[in-house]
Amino acid sequence: MHILIANDDGYLAPGIAALVAACDGLGTIDVVAPEQNASGTSNALTLGRPLSVFENPAGWRVVNGTPSDCVHVALTGLLPKRPDLVLSGINNGANMGDDTLYSGTVAAAMEGYLFGIPSIAFSLVDKGWAHLDAAARTARAVIDDLLGGGLPDGPWLLNVNIPNRADAPTLARHVTRLGRRHASEPVIRQDSPRGDPLYWIGPAGDAKEAGEGTDFFAAAQGKVSITPLQVDLTDHARLGSWAGRLARSRS
Ligand code: MN
């Protein structure tokens, strides 16, 4: 098997080293990761400048771009052949509910999915690397489970959130849907030392839809949350009503 591993926290983050180590023995592993922390960059691709790639002593390719750049460049130029699986993470912090739209961790996996390759994003529910090794063993167990039944035909995309706990590998794994969040907290204004206003994006809003069956619910219950994702953003439920409204406005 041939696995491509990326992340959004940057190639120096402990999370990607733990994920790479956890995949030992699964086959050929290529790592292509951003030079800088690129959390919150979503699916951005760098179009206005070229990307440079250097190799670190471990043979990982490091790209001065976004998580999507890394997977895109890997799949279209760096790798000798198409990988069987794309993994992203392990991210420092949860990617649940609406966060998945902003997440570079999810985006790196999504880039693999968009290229038709089975892809999985892994995140720690709570920030900090306290139980990263346990999370990495959990990620490996999820992968082993998938491989055990024969890797399902792709493309598919899984978003996995793992509680930051020593006993993570023993926790139940629940297949969930995305919850929803309230709108973000307001921006935080500060004055620069030169007196100019500065704005920090505020924290994410609290969970709004966190009922049973959601990723938020599973995580709050101390479960590993596994959400199958897709990319179609079409509002299917409103297709008919919009078509009717626009038809009436023309008549
Ligand atoms: Mn991140």
Q: How would you sum up this structure, described in words?
A:
This protein is 28% helix and 24% strand. It is an alpha/beta fold and 251 residues long. The chain has a single domain, classed as 3-Layer(aba) Sandwich (Stationary-phase Survival Protein Sure Homolog, Chain: A). A nine-stranded mixed sheet has the order 3-4-2-1-5-6-7-13-8. Strands 9-12 form a two-stranded antiparallel sheet. A two-stranded antiparallel ribbon has the order 10-11. The longest helix has 17 residues, at 132-148. The chain is globular, with a radius of gyration of 19 Å. Bound molecules: manganese (II) ion (MN). Manganese (II) ion binds at residues 8-9, 39, 91-92, 104-105.
Keywords:
single chain; 251 residues; alpha/beta; Stationary-phase Survival Protein Sure Homolog, Chain: A; nine-stranded mixed beta sheet; two-stranded antiparallel ribbon; 7 helices; 13 strands; binds manganese (II) ion
**Annotated CATH architecture:** 3-Layer(aba) Sandwich
Largest sheet: 9 strands, mixed
Number of helices: 7
Kindly report the CATH topology.
Stationary-phase Survival Protein Sure Homolog, Chain: A
Number of domains as seen in the coordinates: 1
Beta strand count: 13
Shape: globular
Portion of residues within helices: 25-40%
Instruction: Give the cofactors and ligands.
Output: manganese (II) ion
Order of helices and strands: EHEEEHEHHEHEEEEEEHEH
User: Looking at this structure, what is the CATH superfamily?
Assistant: Survival protein SurE-like phosphatase/nucleotidase
Global structural class: alpha/beta
Low-confidence stretches: none
| CATH class term | Alpha Beta
Termini gap: 58 Å
Radius of gyration, Cα only, in angstroms?
Answer: 19 Å
Binned strand content: 15-25%
The neighbouring-strand order within the major sheet is 3-4-2-1-5-6-7-13-8
- Overall average pLDDT: 96
